[in-house]
Specification:
heterodimer; A: mainly alpha; globular; B: alpha/beta; Alpha-Beta Plaits; 6-stranded mixed β-sheet; 37% helix
Chain lengths: 251, 310
């Protein structure tokens, strides 16, 4: 029974509930996950004559990207430093189920936060031409970025949350600039387009562009396949690397 | 199945330091097994390996028939751990901490609630069930962790120095609970460096030092093995020079303990005679005179020293 997939999945939900109760009120999560990206958005867009649809793509892309990745990198360092990781590891939860729980929590938080810019967009008169595709895209993107967040905490195996947050920011901020958040992919140089194709955020902003402006650089199936591919890659890599680094955190 | 825990050649090193060095022992089902050792002897590392937190470098540990390395989830499902440092989630309430444990062990929700209510009442925490663990005292946190461990009704309960640093009342409550749950069929494995606690609680004791098992037996048999540690404790109405007492025949060692002097000997009768002669000669009055069997602490210190090669 304990090895049963659904039994373990239930335990993942328990971990997710715990994460949501504990971590989303933490200072570093609010600062790096919400406040900093919001001001980055403002500093880039204020005073520039941009169509509102373009602003919406940037705001929604940044909101879902930063909020889904806000807590993931810090959970395991927080747990290691407070020795609750040891408690978790002595319980009958599989390593994959433990990290899936963290992903579920990040996913729900990211999805919930990204509803705010969506409502702002609708109030400002953004016309969502493809609501179903946008909803599906948001779900997939939140899952993908949450997995990415958990992967970023896998190495180095630190138990200092601020170190993990710093490392994740080193990866997150450059990605925002190459993913069509500020500059549409179609307007990038060829080398920029190549780099952009390695960022999962690119495919989400492309999807939002399609849903609001009916223009996209990639085809919609490509955007979906890329997001699914990145999710599977991040999730698998996160679980495998965490499995390897956990003993170092516990010794 | 008569064996709850089987350990064979368990070894763990951290860099060049071997914390646990090829240890072997068995814990019988329904037993209270004490794991005694000085600080840094390897007690916590052993418990962490037995509970699947650390991977051993060598050897194996079988918990109720399940190899902790090959079937970790099955083994963990039937055990619970109370670590040395209470590691409750400080930003969750006492109730939420217990519900989380229930979820992690797959205990049905209604059962979790009933057990949590019962345990929190037993440990005097029910009134504070909705408060964050952050505001709890050390003793309360330890009780909460014990509640969380017992919520899952484990077959084997591991406790790592569960009463260390607790006030007398909390420590007694925890000891009483250990006895009670053992009577109800839970096998208890607990580490301590409190000899008196081990003596009062344990069916058998293993003494570990420098990562190696120095002895395993019942407390009484361990004491009997160190018969040369029998002693006579005496106090006089006036202070006496300890050097003079050292000249009494058949004494292996002596030490001053408060206003008393303890003389170690394997012939207490002869030492008592010598002491009464000495008192008569020096015109002293004997205030108290007792013969003592070796304490577990004496045995422990002797074994640790022997092991160290002192």
């Amino acid at each position: 029974m304990v090895n049963n997939f659904f039994e373990q999945l239930k335990r993942s939900v328990g971990v997710a509930k715990k994460d949501l109760r504990i971590y989303y009120k933490r200072g570093p999560v609010i600062i790096f996950g919400l406040i900093m990206p919001f001001f980055l958005f403002l500093s880039f867009f204020i005073g520039r004559n941009m169509p509102i649809e373009r602003l919406f793509i940037g705001l929604l892309g940044m909101a879902i990207f930063f909020s889904s990745m806000s807590i993931g990198p810090a959970i395991i360092p927080f747990e290691a430093s407070s020795r609750t990781l040891e408690r978790l590891m002595s319980t009958p939860i599989a390593v994959w189920a433990l990290f899936l729980g963290d992903v579920i929590a990040s996913f729900l938080y990211g999805l919930l936060i990204s509803i705010v810019p969506l409502i702002i967009g609708l109030v400002l008169g953004i016309n969502i031409i493809q609501p179903l595709i946008l909803s599906l895209g948001m779900v997939l993107a939140a899952l993908c970025f949450s997995s990415f967040g958990i992967l970023l905490s896998a190495y180095p195996p630190t138990d200092v949350p601020s170190t993990a947050m710093m490392i994740s920011n080193l990866v997150k901020f450059p990605l925002v600039f190459i993913s069509g958040v500020f500059i549409p992919i179609s307007q990038m140089q060829d080398w920029g387009k190549i780099i952009a194709s390695f960022s999962p955020l690119t495919y989400f902003t492309d999807l939002v562009s399609y849903c609001t402006q009916e223009t996209s650089y990639y085809s919609i199936p490509v955007d979906f396949i890329a997001l699914i591919g990145f999710t599977l890659l991040f999730l698998t890599a996160a679980i495998k690397i965490h499995e390897k680094t956990l003993p170092k955190r516990l010794s | 199945m008569k064996t709850a825990i089987e350990v064979e050649g368990l070894t763990k090193s951290f860099g060049e330091i071997t914390a646990v060095n090829h240890i072997n022992f068995e814990v019988k089902k329904d037993e209270i097994f004490g794991f005694l050792g000085p600080n840094g002897a390897g007690k916590t590392t052993t418990i962490r390996m037995l509970t699947g937190v650390l991977k051993p470098d060598e050897g194996k540990a079988i918990i109720m028939g399940h190899d902790i390395l090959k079937e970790p989830l099955k083994a963990k499902q039937i055990i619970s751990v109370v670590p040395e440092m209470a590691n409750a989630y400080l930003d969750l309430t006492a109730w939420q901490n217990l519900m989380l444990m229930g979820e992690l062990y797959g205990v049905p929700k209604e059962e979790s609630r009933e057990r949590a209510k019962f345990l929190l009442k037993e440990f005097g925490l029910y009134e504070r069930r909705n408060q964050l663990a952050r505001g709890f005292s050390k003793g309360m946190k330890q009780k909460l962790i014990l509640c969380a461990a017992l919520l899952t009704e484990p077959q084997v309960l591991f406790l790592d120095e569960p009463t260390a640093g607790l006030d007398v009342e909390s420590a007694r409550l925890i000891r009483d609970m250990i006895r009670q749950y053992n009577r109800e069929g839970t096998t208890i494995f607990f580490s301590t460096h409190n000899m008196e606690e081990a003596n009062r609680l344990c069916d058998r004791i293993a003494i570990i030092n420098h990562g190696k098992i120095a002895a395993i037996d019942t407390p009484e048999k361990l004491r009997m093995k160190s018969i040369e540690l029998k002693s006579v404790e005496v106090s006089f109405n006036k202070p006496v020079p300890i050097k003079e007492l050292a000249e009494i025949p058949n004494i292996t060692n002596l030490k001053k303990i408060g206003d008393k002097i303890r003389l170690y000997t394997d012939e207490p009768h002869s030492v008592i005679n010598s002491l009464t002669d000495y008192a008569r000669r020096k015109k002293l009055t004997i205030i108290s005179l007792n013969t003592l069997a070796p304490t577990l602490e004496d045995v422990f210190i002797k074994l640790v020293r022997e092991h160290r090669g002192d």
